[in-house]
Design a protein that fits this description.
With 205 residues, this protein is α/β, with parallel strands linked by helices. Helices cover 51% and strands 14% of the residues. α2 crosses α8 (196-204) and α3 packs across α4.
Amino acid sequence: MTNAHGRACQYTADAAIGDARAAEAAAKTGQGRRARLIVVSGPAGSGKTTLAHTLARRIGCPAVCRDEIKEGMVHAAGPDFAAAPGDPLTMRTLPTFFGVLRLLLEAGVTTVAEAAFQDRLWRPNLEPLRELADVRVVQCVAPEAVTRARRARRGAEQPTRRAHADAADVPAVFHRLALDVPSLTVDTAEGYAPTLEEIAVFVDR
């Protein structure tokens, strides 16, 4: 049984390596295209996490969300964890987030990445990923009254928010990404404008 299991694992690994080499060869010969990295950005409460998951389901790809990575760390850390600006888990979250994105993109996986993505802090980490994927930025916006109400509601309804120092995490001014890539602004106040279908067309072209 052990040997059979071992052989099965080897076949799986060989198949995965073969698929990766085939994808690389296809890209070099023009038979395929590079993966897409769809960056969903915006200030706290702008609806970016909801849009990221909705868009990923529409496209058929994974969504990697910065806050959800930290929430998983906090779950493992236990109930004694206290969130604070610059806490140790926050410091671990950033390299983990970009490590996951790099792993997926190197494997040729189109990926939706969601985080606040303030320009100064996040652009230096996004720039190197342009070597691996075609990047599209989807910038979420909503009126301040809407974002404030959303932050209050999720704080009351989502126990996982204990992972974040929400009050301290909201910057006075939000500096949008300044990547030289195609960008689309989406108003999330009531549904999506442009529509979800229009967003999907934008990220695919």
